[in-house]
Design goal:
six-stranded parallel sheet, Rossmann fold
């Protein structure tokens, strides 16, 4: 089996798409799948042309124009891919996301692995709200074309897969769900995770909020949880990584803002690893989330997650086994009661932390994901 691996960007650049495109390719390569990398693709337009289109729609209609689904751009990508495919012996085309393959015509079967459909993103993420009619039409067309011509449509969550079936009439037989794994170079052992769990203090609750968008990721909710726990008598720290908290200054002593830490450097990776490992919970009460790889990364270190039941999150966090999903409308007290109960019966916390690691080992790592996708690819080759 030889894959032509399609990305718009450089697939070996771990900074792109939070490293997901890189880790997808790495997971497949580790399954002894030969890969020809067809990215990066050349952009057909200058930024100046795109900015002009954006200004036009905003000034006239106060609507947003997005270039990502523009047919001329996608056809330019398709032409590049056809040229590159003529120089490879790959027998499958495998794309990370649907965009580059929507207008691709080729003899090889096409497969993609995505974390959302446009229908799922629309009016869910702020940047996909108030779009102009041209962008709306183009994006729905792009999704439909890509799904129709693909032999296999793989999504990272049940939510994304269901939107493909419900909105784009995707054949359920070719829609598969394979969760993304934790973006870690080295997986910890059970013994190491047990040591991490035992080293966490029992008299103070350490919460970690990790996200670049304070509002969308629910930073305000995380703060109120930490504040309420402290007021109720459970000493709690909230460490904030990735963004500047939108809170009045001076910040309370229990808030520890650390700013953005890059995963693209070994130093940054080590620092994030340490911060997660030292925490009792990763708290991510997102208002919108396609997936949430950081939840998998927390589980990999035996850290349960407190999150909301939106988007792809419920595919990761299941049934109090590796944390808990709360309704978006859940009162702060629900989070606090859950945490307090676990601290009151701390052996239950240790059990939850260990089962969080088991969730990572059994289904939330790239080795399992790679094995699953390899079998799906072998099935369509027959």
């Amino acid at each position: 089996m030889k894959l032509a691996y399609v990305t718009e960007y450089d697939p070996l650049d771990i900074r792109q798409w939070s490293g997901t495109g890189y880790y997808i390719a790495r997971a497949l390569h580790q399954q002894s799948i030969e890969i020809d990398y067809l990215g990066p693709l050349q952009e057909p337009w200058s930024d100046r042309v795109v900015r002009k289109a954006k200004r036009h729609y905003y000034s006239l209609f106060h609507q947003k124009y997005l270039k990502d689904s523009e047919p001329l751009r996608l056809k330019h990508f398709a032409a590049q891919l056809q040229q590159k495919l003529s120089q490879t012996q790959a027998n499958l085309v495998f794309s990370a996301t649907v965009n580059p393959i929507a207008y691709l015509d080729c003899d090889q079967p096409i497969v993609f692995w995505a974390d959302a459909t446009f229908a799922g993103l629309l009016n869910f993420y702020p940047q996909y709200s108030n779009l102009c009619p041209e962008t709306l039409n183009n994006w729905h067309q792009m999704e439909s074309l890509a799904i129709q011509k693909s032999k296999l449509a793989i999504y990272s969550s049940d939510w994304a897969a269901q939107t493909a079936i419900d909105t784009y009439q995707a054949d359920p037989a070719k829609v598969k769900v394979v969760p993304f794994g934790a973006n870690l170079f080295n997986s910890p052992t059970l013994s190491e995770v047990k040591t991490l769990i035992e080293s966490r203090p029992t008299q103070v609750c350490k919460l970690l909020f990790l996200g670049v968008d304070w509002i969308r990721k629910g930073g305000d909710t995380a703060f109120r949880v930490a504040q309420t726990l402290n007021q109720a008598g459970l000493k709690t720290e909230l460490t904030i990584v990735g963004c500047t908290p939108d809170l009045p200054t001076p910040l309370p002593d229990f808030v520890k803002p650390l700013g953005f830490i890059s995963k693209a450097t070994p130093k940054g990776q080590q620092q994030l690893h340490r911060l997660i490992a030292e925490s009792h919970f990763l708290i991510l009460p997102s208002r919108a989330e396609c997936y949430g790889i950081v939840l998998c990364e927390a589980n990999a270190l035996g850290v349960p997650c407190l999150a909301t039941d939106v988007g792809g999150i419920p595919t990761i966090i299941r049934g109090d086994r590796n944390g808990k999903c709360f309704s978006q409308t859940a009162p702060i007290e629900d989070y606090c009661d859950y945490i307090t109960q676990l601290f009151t019966h701390y052996s239950d916390y240790r059990t939850l932390a260990l089962s969080s690691f088991d969730a990572y080992q059994s289904r939330l790592n790239w080795q399992v994901a790679g094995q699953t996708v390899k079998q799906l690819l072998k099935d369509i080759e027959r």
